[in-house]
Design a protein that fits this description.
Layout lengths: L3 H14 L2 E9 L5 E10 L3 E18 L17 E4 L2 E26 L4 E24 L5 E24 L4 E8 L2 E3 L17 E2 L2 E10 L4
Antiparallel strand pairs: 1-2, 1-11, 2-3, 3-5, 4-5, 5-6, 6-7, 7-8, 7-9, 8-11, 9-10
């Protein structure tokens, strides 16, 4: 127990004299506007570690079949591909969905400053969170060709790996502006619940983003 005060003192000294930044950002897929925040800590001079979150405002998904007799695969596995009503089978022929997601991020990267103003930052980040998916699914009757729209709301896990690159512009001693490009690739960790197969499904595959933000230095030494 005698070592505990020493360990605590070293820990807080490390926090106080190492470079740390908090950031707030806006980003877009060109059809939405979303929000993110993060905390970053410099380790080994130019490498950074941190965490944060992103709130993705809207991702659109859709798929339609040209063959009436065959059903589509639904990315949300709890949404049925067919059902029976009054002795007639109905199969899903198409759908449109809207999703929102809250995701935690693990931030890693490297930065280099070319002078007192300009710099570059390269990140490789991970994301994991939950999406709320709302969709209208169109079911076609196999006898009378009747189309029945059915609405579903489902939650599912979303995950991604995101390479990123930013141009940084230091505005003041503690304030830095940045903008850049991000290249998140989404994939499913549990295909029993979310298993997209169509390129137009939301949170599936490559979905690039543009981002702008600010970071503010916190601590005792810059």
């Amino acid at each position: 127990m005698s070592k505990l005060p020493f360990i605590v003192s070293v820990f807080f000294s490390f926090l106080g004299f190492s470079q740390q930044r908090v950031g707030l950002e806006l980003f877009s897929h060109l059809d939405d506007l979303s929000l993110g925040a993060h905390f970053q800590k410099v380790v080994k001079t130019k490498f950074i570690l941190g965490g944060g979150f992103v709130w993705i405002n809207r991702r659109l998904g859709e798929a339609f079949s040209e063959e009436q007799s065959s059903s589509l695969s639904t990315a949300i596995r709890s949404v049925p591909v067919s059902f029976d009503r009054n002795g007639e089978k109905y199969v899903v022929q198409g759908y449109r969905t809207k999703s929102k997601a809250f995701m935690l991020t693990l931030n890693t990267g490297f930065f280099h400053e070319f002078g007192t103003v300009h710099g570059i930052r390269v990140n490789l980040n991970g994301r994991i969170g939950v999406a709320e998916n709302k969709g209208t699914y169109h079911y076609s009757g196999q006898i009378n060709d009747t189309i029945v729209p059915v609405k579903y709301t489902r939650n599912h896990l979303v995950t991604a790996v995101s390479p990123e690159i930013y141009h940084t512009l230091r505005q003041r001693q503690k304030l830095t502006f940045y903008y850049g490009l991000r290249f998140p690739v989404y994939f499913s960790l549990d295909k029993r619940y979310f298993d997209p197969v169509y390129r137009k499904d939301g949170f599936y595959g490559f979905e690039p983003e543009i981002a702008i933000g600010i970071t503010y230095f916190v601590g005792k030494k810059l």
